[in-house]
Design brief:
The protein has 17 helices and twelve strands. By secondary structure, it is of the alpha/beta class. It is elongated, with a radius of gyration of 28 Å. InterPro entries: MFS_trans_sf, SAM-dependent_MTases_sf.
């Protein structure tokens, strides 16, 4: 019996939906690249709130891989049940809207509902990742015109998708992040995906869908502009704002990702607002004769509060600062008055690499202030890093560093133990409850200041300086410090589980 021409096509025979090979390659390449762009930028976006830790990286990579697996599976399954041509436009459009809104949504959540950050972050990676990953099996379905070409089509599109992922990774890591703020990358990518959705739908449905699609694209763009969570300035690493002190007209607070990072008095650099900065000043003033100029190196810049203090109190001091974020340096110059102080030089560089550029015995003082409450550059904590710091210090040189930790203070204990392995004399300054001088109280954590040198530390002079600045902090050294350190492990380049040791807390200020 002859089958009627109006009968359904045999389900085992692939249909030709008319999608050209170039269009298919562009769709697969672009969607695969977009998934990796979202993954890498999400790491940068979340680091200020969750820390640039092994756990954060593992979480983002795990969610991205879950999205790819889920999208590939569901995309193929749905494409077998629904006309695949109806799926591509919505997949691109919805993922584009989510990607474009991600910076505002995550930053708003981090500031106003931090308990929800993990869930919201997971969704902002999972939803667009799954939708974009579904494009490859959908396009594969459209391109399968003959069972004899199945291997060729699947293999070619799989290869194109892999190349797209590689290009997305390299482009983001080496080009986009170095030239654009993370929100700009995501908003731009989201806009491109929404435009791609509009083009796909226009090609499928013609002009009848253009008004609605145009409205969606415009609405999405406006939403990204008016959504909360914006910044005065967005740097490569931070969402930054400069806030004027209402009680002190010349006072400025540098706020990075919602946390008070630095306080600068433009007219009076000797005014030190934060307690830990006053503690560092006390340690340095007790270690060196009053007014003596120093050769100093600073690991981490921020608002350059302490380099300015040295320039004002020790004329002739030469301070060299390693600050990894060029955007913060621009803020220092444009909004915080950097430029009038003599002897302050800033290099945009990683602190560990900056140390290698210094000559042996060339510094009287090294100040470490690159550690944040949720993000610690572990490579600046190890025995090898401390050995390099010791190398650049002269025989009477001093290393003083700000540490931030909470809970059991496991990271701070390990770092102090590491310094003891490197320097002959080490002391710890902080609240008595945090440094073991009041064993009846439970440590709260926060800022601690550690000092290390190969020459003896003048404990009495240091304590007097701390008292004069009304810090309320005390000094732990000798047996007290040994007891406080306990059995903490040394940190090395080969073994530095800083991410696991650190107990972060999300205060509204770092003082």
């Amino acid at each position: 019996m002859t089958r009627s021409s109006s009968s359904p096509v045999d389900e085992g025979t692939p249909r030709n939906y008319g999608l050209g090979p170039r269009a298919a390659a562009v769709l697969v390449f672009g969607s695969s690249a977009a998934v990796l762009v979202v993954e890498i930028v999400a790491l940068r976006l979340l680091a200020p709130y969750l820390g640039l830790t092994l756990e954060t990286s593992t979480m983002v990579i795990g969610i991205a891989l879950t999205a790819i697996a889920l999208g590939s599976w569901l995309g193929g399954r749905i494409a077998d049940q629904v006309d695949p041509r109806r799926l591509i436009g919505p997949s691109l459009g919805v993922s584009g809207a989510v990607v474009a809104l991600t910076p505002a949504v995550l930053r708003t959540t981090a500031e106003w509902a931090p308990a929800m950050l993990f869930l919201i972050a997971s969704l902002t990676i999972l939803v667009p990742g799954a939708l974009l990953s579904a494009v490859t099996p959908i396009v594969t379905k459209l391109r399968l015109t003959s069972l004899a070409e199945t291997g060729t089509v699947v293999g070619r599109l799989s290869g194109v998708g892999t190349v797209g992922a590689i290009v997305g990774t390299v482009l983001t890591g080496f080009v986009l992040v170095s030239r654009l703020p993370v929100s700009g990358i995501l908003i731009g990518l989201g806009a491109l995906l929404m435009v791609g959705s509009a083009l796909v739908e226009w090609r499928r449905r013609g002009w009848s869908s253009t008004p609605a699609l145009t409205l969606v694209v415009v609405a999405g763009g406006l939403a990204t502009m008016v959504a909360p969570g914006g910044c005065d300035t967005e740097t490569r690493y931070h969402c930054a704002r400069v806030v004027t002190d209402p009680d002190r007209g010349s006072g400025r607070t540098l706020v990075l990702d919602g946390v008070r990072h630095s306080y600068v008095d433009i007219d009076d650099p000797t005014f030190l607002e934060f307690t830990y900065v006053r503690a560092i000043a006390s340690v340095v003033d007790a270690a060196f004769p009053e007014g003596e100029p120093l050769a100093a190196h600073h690991l981490g810049g921020g608002g350059l509060t302490f380099p300015r203090y040295l320039a004002a109190t020790r004329p002739g001091t030469r301070s060299l600062v390693s600050e990894i974020d060029s955007g913060v340096v621009h803020i220092d110059r444009d909004q915080l008055g950097l430029g009038s102080e003599a002897g302050i030089g800033v290099r945009v560089e990683d602190g560990r690499l900056g140390l290698r550029r210094l000559d042996a015995g060339s510094r009287d003082l090294v100040v470490g202030d690159a550690f944040g409450g949720v993000s610690v550059p572990w490579h600046l904590t190890t025995v090898e890093a401390m050995t390099d710091i010791r190398r650049v210090l002269n025989e009477d040189g001093l290393y003083v560093a700000n540490l931030i930790d909470h809970g059991a203070l496991a990271f701070a204990r390990a770092e102090v133990a590491t310094l003891r392995e490197t320097f002959e004399h080490v002391a710890l300054v902080g609240e008595p409850t945090d440094i073991g001088l009041d064993p009846t109280a439970t440590p709260e954590g926060g800022n601690l200041v550690v000092l290390a040198s190969d020459r003896p530390v003048d404990l009495r002079a240091t304590q007097e300086a701390l008292d004069a600045r009304q810090t309320g902090w005390k000094i732990a050294t000798g047996d007290d410090l040994t007891s406080w350190i306990g059995d903490a492990q040394l940190l090395t380049d080969d073994y530095a589980p800083v991410d696991q040791l650190l107990q972060p807390y999300s205060p509204r200020s770092s003082q």
